[in-house]
Design goal:
The chain is 34% helix and 22% strand. With 326 residues, it is α+β, with helices and mostly antiparallel strands. The strands form two sheets. It has an eight-stranded mixed sheet with strand order 4-3-2-6-5-1-11-12. Strands 7-8-9-10 form a four-stranded antiparallel sheet. Strand 2 and strand 3 form a beta hairpin. Helix 1 packs antiparallel against helix 2 and helix 7 packs across helix 8. The protein is globular.
């Protein structure tokens, strides 16, 4: 017991997601295979940290770094383009044991935004840094910076061209451009429970295709897209505006801590009831200090997976895909 919480000591576990809003119609067998391979690699990277006795924060950082490097996901290397043809990256991380957190938003040259978020937490007095200031801090701290062209992938570029075309057609016909919920999806995240029973959470994203005005979603906002405390950790993936309004990640853990709800019930209530009722959709991953896990989502698919002490990765994409319980 720790502070009245039953924790799963010596039973480390890592849970990840690569974003909700996955649609089978837009996937080829090769796409699915590449995504599964990347998810498994991320799980193994995080598990290696846990197996070595490292803290949950290290496992979360390692797993998300792999996902950011994989072009299959809208984060890091696979980030989508803004209206101006740029890539704007957001990320956050939180330590459940101490309540410390770090976040960055609107960066263009940081190869792995999760490492910068971690450095903001560890090496500064602040929680969030944005834009040029965040990149200046990154340079001071020796964080790897790359030319913006590093983030360019043809798939994401064509997605922007299609979005611009649809926007132009809507303007020409004088009709409002209605964006589907999936336009707001595209996030990666990880949660870890280490051998000491301590939790951590992290999230990273490239935002939304064709966004303007420096729009920022829930991913870098502590309590909205990312949360961890001594009982519960959450990383969200969905329509960010609704996750911000609901303080979704914190709300799930608050129901566990204050209402005594089980993790699965709390996560389902926020993600599959409250957010859709308000007009949004998406998914999340949640992990409890007792080792319980939840993968709620209300789209056709969500890249997701977990790995336990035995080191065997389990991944899934679509709603009907089996994902063994722990």
């Amino acid at each position: 017991m720790r502070n009245g919480v039953l924790v799963a000591v010596d039973a480390p576990v890592l849970v990840i997601h690569g974003g909700a809003g996955v649609e089978r119609a837009g996937m080829t067998p090769a796409d699915e295979a590449a995504a599964r391979t990347a998810l498994e690699a991320a799980l193994r990277a995080g598990h290696a940290q846990l197996k070595a006795g490292k803290p949950a924060l290290d496992a979360v950082t390692a797993a998300i770094t792999v996902l950011e490097d994989a072009p299959q996901f809208n984060a890091g290397r696979g980030a989508v383009f803004t209206h101006d043809g740029k890539n704007e990256l957001d990320s956050s991380i939180m330590d459940g044991a101490t309540g410390k957190a770090g976040a960055v938003a609107g960066v263009h040259r940081v190869k792995n935004p999760i490492t910068l978020a971690r450095t903001v937490m560890d090496k500064s007095r602040h929680v969030m840094m944005v834009g040029g200031g965040a990149e200046a801090f990154a340079k001071e701290q020796g964080i790897t910076l790359v030319d913006p062209s590093y983030f360019r992938t043809e798939k994401r570029w064509q997605q922007l061209q299609n979005a611009l075309k649809e926007e132009k057609q809507a303007q020409a016909s004088n009709t409002p451009l209605e964006l589907p919920g999936k336009a707001y999806f595209g996030t990666v995240g990880a949660l870890a429970l280490d051998a000491k029973g301590l939790l951590a959470a992290g999230t990273s994203t490239g935002g939304m295709t064709n966004k303007r005005y420096g729009r920022v979603g829930d991913s870098p906002i502590i309590g909205a897209g990312t949360w961890a405390d001594d009982r519960c950790a959450v990383s969200g993936t969905g329509w960010g505006e609704y996750y911000i309004r609901a303080a979704a990640a914190h709300e799930i853990c608050a129901r566990v801590r204050l209402a005594g709800q089980g993790l699965v019930r709390a996560a389902d209530g926020v993600i599959n009831r409250d957010i859709p009722k308000a007009g949004g959709d998406g998914g999340a991953i949640a992990l409890g200090a007792d080792g319980s896990m939840a993968f709620p989502f209300n789209t056709e698919g969500m890249y997701r997976g977990w790995i336990g002490a035995d080191g065997v990765p389990h991944v899934a994409i679509y709603k009907e895909d089996p994902l063994p319980a722990r």
